[in-house]
Design a protein that fits this description.
two-stranded parallel sheet, two-stranded antiparallel ribbon
Length: 366
């Protein structure tokens, strides 16, 4: 019989108004998301690690001690860990460095906290694979310098930690088995989904070419500006510009349909409409349904944990999510919001009045 869930209490301060007006806030988030997508397109294998950073940051919260929480300390924890040629730690460090680099570049225009960058990065990794876009609450303040490092094992989600210990960390953080199932189901998907970019050129647009009505082939294409054309215009019109020909610039597309913005996706055979694909397979194999292929070993430690009899309701939720992608995507959004806001205390004007001491939205096991 699992230990009782500890209610989450305040330890991380949130100020949703810290980024100013909506235009500044959207610009900051879009820039961070584009940086994460760029890193994933260049190396699709690191997509799961952005998501794992967000989980590790949130799961550092402990309802008993009121310590930890999604305050960005996971970055220093990961970067201070010796990789020892271990691919798992190396992957986390690549993702952490990408977030730091993006945050540094953003400071030239509008600052964004590392804690917010971690949460946004996890959500963008899901969308880059083909999953739903998740709403991420902004306004986390970073842990003060000199804060006690996170005590959560950096290897918690590597598969080297017993499943019972992983489940207990979720409980200690104040999360339900339903939330654990939704979150680990997403991690399972990010890991099992085949990942790769379309073509060798990671900068290539995935949009169709515009064709003028009544014309076909090359006659319909607009003449594209060459690097020489751009350089010439810069010299003529903006001699004081800091742009040079020494750097190869990449400008992400931020307009159009959801699957077109921020560059190409890297998930193959996975999208928002079948994002429960691997949970459905796990459920079929577990139930030994006719036509099901493989065995639960193919789903690794996550499959073992979600089907463990010590977690009485998680298997029921695997069945539920495997049967309904709408239910799964909805619950995933709520669960991700929960883990990235554990212990939150809202500050600052109207947000403090509206949200302070308000119970977080959660998913009950009932």
């Amino acid at each position: 019989n699992p230990a009782s869930v500890e209610p989450a209490s305040a330890t991380v301060y949130f100020d949703p108004a810290m980024y100013g007006d909506q235009e500044l806030r959207v610009a900051a988030v879009d820039s961070l998301r584009e940086s994460v997508r760029r890193a994933i397109i260049q190396d699709p294998s690191i997509a799961p690690y952005f998501y794992e950073l967000a989980l590790l940051d949130g799961l550092s919260y402990n309802g008993k001690t009121k310590g930890g929480g999604p305050d960005g300390r996971v970055i220093s924890l990961v970067l201070s860990t010796s990789a020892k040629d271990e691919p798992y730690v190396t992957g986390l460090q690549k993702a952490a460095n990408a977030l730091i680099e993006a945050s540094i570049k953003l400071k030239k225009y509008t600052a964004i906290t590392i804690a917010d960058a971690v949460a946004i990065g996890g959500g963008e990794a899901i969308e880059a694979i083909g999953g739903p876009r998740l709403s991420v609450q902004l306004g986390r303040t970073d842990a003060p310098k000199g804060s006690t490092p996170s005590t959560l094992p950096v290897s918690l989600l590597s598969g080297s930690v017993p499943g019972s210990q992983v489940a207990q960390v979720f409980r200690d953080a104040g999360l339900t088995e339903r939330e654990m199932t939704a979150l680990l189901g997403c991690l399972l998907t990010l890991r099992l989904a085949q990942k790769g970019r379309v073509g060798q050129d990671w900068k290539a647009s995935q949009r169709g070419q515009f064709r003028e009505r009544g014309k076909i082939g090359r006659m319909s294409e607009f003449k594209r500006l060459t690097d020489e054309d751009i350089a010439e215009m810069e010299e003529d019109d903006d001699e004081g510009s800091e742009l040079t020909d020494n750097e190869d610039y990449y400008i992400a597309e931020t307009f159009g349909a959801k699957d077109q913005v921020f560059g190409q996706g890297v998930g193959q055979g996975i999208n928002e409409k079948n994002f429960n694909k691997y949970l459905a397979q796990l459920n079929d194999v577990s139930a030994k349904k006719k036509g099901a292929k493989g065995n639960t070993a193919e789903f690794g430690w996550i499959g073992d944990l979600l089907l463990d009899k010590e977690n009485p309701t998680s298997q029921a939720w695997v069945n539920k999510y495997g049967s309904s992608v709408l239910s799964y995507n909805k619950d995933l959004g709520i669960a991700y919001g929960a883990v990235t806001q554990l212990g939150a205390e809202f500050t600052g004007g109207k947000y403090e009045n509206l949200l302070k001491n308000k119970p977080r939205k959660s998913l009950s096991d009932e």
